[in-house]
Structures are given as structure tokens and as C-alpha cells.
Design goal:
- By secondary structure, this protein is mainly alpha-helical.
- It has a domain of about 35 residues.
- The longest helix has about 35 residues.
- It is elongated, with a radius of gyration of 20 Å.
- The chain starts with 9 loop residues before the first helix and ends in a 14-residue tail after the last helix.
- About 5% of the residues are buried.
Length: about 80
């Protein structure tokens, strides 16, 4: 996966991370297989964190700006 992960792929990445954890916790993997899975997991985790950080920042900005909505629509009528 290259570049930032799209938000639509976040769910798939989290699902794949769960599969990787199950495989790593299981028996029978060679060291090189374990390392490859671990590396894949780290890449997926970093991508997911970037998407979540971006969403958090967008939410923070919306809250600071009032979301473009009046917080008390009746206040202007008083």
C-alpha cells in the first residue's frame, strides 16, 4: 500500500490487522513469515492511525468553528 490510506479502506485494514494478530498468535509460522506479517501489520496500523488522526482534526475544526451552524438557532430571534 503506498500513500495515505483512504477512509473507505480503513475498515478493511482493521479487519486485516485482526487476521494478522490471529496468525501471529497461532503456531507454525516460520520466523520470516512472522516478520513479514508483523511488517504488514505495522504499515496497516500507521495508515489507519493517519486516517483517524485526520478525522480527529476535522472534528476538532468543526467543533471550534461551530460546525457552520448556529449553536442556538433561537438566540438570533430573541
Amino acid at each position: 500500500m503506498t500513500g495515505p490510506m483512504s477512509e473507505t479502506r480503513l475498515e478493511g485494514a482493521l479487519e486485516r490487522l485482526g487476521e494478522i494478530v490471529e496468525q501471529l498468535e497461532g503456531d507454525g509460522l516460520e520466523l520470516d513469515e512472522s516478520l513479514a506479517l508483523f511488517e504488514e501489520g505495522v504499515r496497516l496500523l500507521r495508515g489507519a492511525e493517519a486516517v483517524l488522526d485526520g478525522a480527529e482534526e476535522r472534528i476538532r475544526l468543526l467543533v471550534e468553528e461551530g460546525g457552520g451552524f448556529r449553536q442556538d438557532p433561537m438566540a438570533e430571534e430573541r
